[in-house]
Amino acid sequence: MQEEQEQAIPCPICRKVNPAIETLNRQINQARSVTDKAYFARKLKAKVEEVLEEHGPADDPTGKACRSVLNLRKQTAELILKAQKLAD
């Protein structure tokens, strides 16, 4: 129980969307082909962009941390999409 509390995401926006993002990450990791990974990467990138838009500018430490994590997720999705272009 205490471990769950330590892992709680303080930002309500990120906390709400985290299950969907984690599902997309899992789908990317489980996909066998670059094409399949790219399909989920597109969805992940769109979801992250949507959340970044909702999040708005980050003035507080929690908001900055959330935006940093979201931007890393977006960069990961973009790398997968670049890999697909190279494979085509």
Using brief descriptors, characterize the structure shown:
88 residues; elongated; mainly alpha; disordered N terminus; 4 helices
Provide structural commentary:
Residues 1-6 have low confidence and may be disordered. The protein is 83% helix and 0% strand. The longest helix is centred in the C-terminal third of the chain and has 27 residues, at 61-87. It is mainly α and 88 residues long. The chain has one domain (10-87).
Question: What is the gist of this entry?
Answer:
With 88 residues, this protein is mainly α.
Tally of separate domains: 1
Roughly what fraction of the amino acids lie in strands?
under 5%
Helix-strand pattern: HHHH
Largest sheet: none
Provide mean pLDDT, rounded. 89
Number of strands: 0
Q: What is the CA-atom radius of gyration, in angstroms?
A: 14 Å
Q: How would you name the oligomeric state of the polypeptide chains in this document?
A: single chain
Which runs of at least 5 residues are low in confidence (pLDDT < 50)?
Answer: 1-6
